[in-house]
Amino acid sequence: MAGERPVRHDWVYLGTGWAEHLRSPLLPDVLVRATAWREQGRPFAVSRQDLPDQEDDLRLGLTLPDRRHLSLHVALPAVERHLPPPTVQEARASAPPAWGPALDDVIALGTALDLTVSVFGSLAWQHRSGVPFVRPLSDVDLLFAPARWSDVERLLFGLEAVSRRHSVVRLDGEVLMPDGGAVSWRELALEPERIWVTGPRGASPRTLRELRALFPAEP
């Protein structure tokens, strides 16, 4: 596998000999389902790593249309290629038509802030696999990586405005921090004293001041 190491929310396609690189054994039923999914040319989502994992370990998730979630633990050589999370623009065609106006407003917000807006969750699964995942009450899980704290503030203000305008779908998702951690944008908008941060490995609470300090100082 060439290129950078896949990270959480990326998508990977496993090679033909992927099962030889399992780091943790799979139950027979899980192996059958994962093998069938892979043979249909469909990808797996990269999950959060565990604290004891080595650099060449990779945790993958497979969420089936019936909402059953399967977990795989493989070595990096199992991966044939990988892709980043799909952007909202890419996934829009896979979304229900009723979501279109809300997604267009999210795309416009990203353009105004010069931010790439990606998606994960059910819409991303539907887009990447071609299998129906989105249900009437599904959320749209958005992913942002602002470079400045002022952009975070503008982003939160914009997302709350878009949410008020469009009640047909709930906008959820995460803001990525410069150190690789991720926080719920809805929780961050509440400005709590402490907020739960999902890191590349493990998760822990951080203060709002600590999160602000991760960004470069602004004039």
UniProtKB/TrEMBL annotation:
Keywords: Nucleotidyltransferase, Transferase. GO terms for molecular function: nucleotidyltransferase activity. InterPro entries: Holo-ACP_synthase, MdcG_C, MdcG_N. Residues 8-85 form the Phosphoribosyl-dephospho-CoA transferase MdcG N-terminal domain. This is Malonate decarboxylase holo-[acyl-carrier-protein] synthase. It comes from Corallococcus aberystwythensis. Residues 89-202 form the Phosphoribosyl-dephospho-CoA transferase MdcG C-terminal domain. The keyword Transcription does not apply. The gene is mdcG. The keyword Electron transport does not apply. Pfam families: MdcG (PF10620), MdcG_N (PF20866).
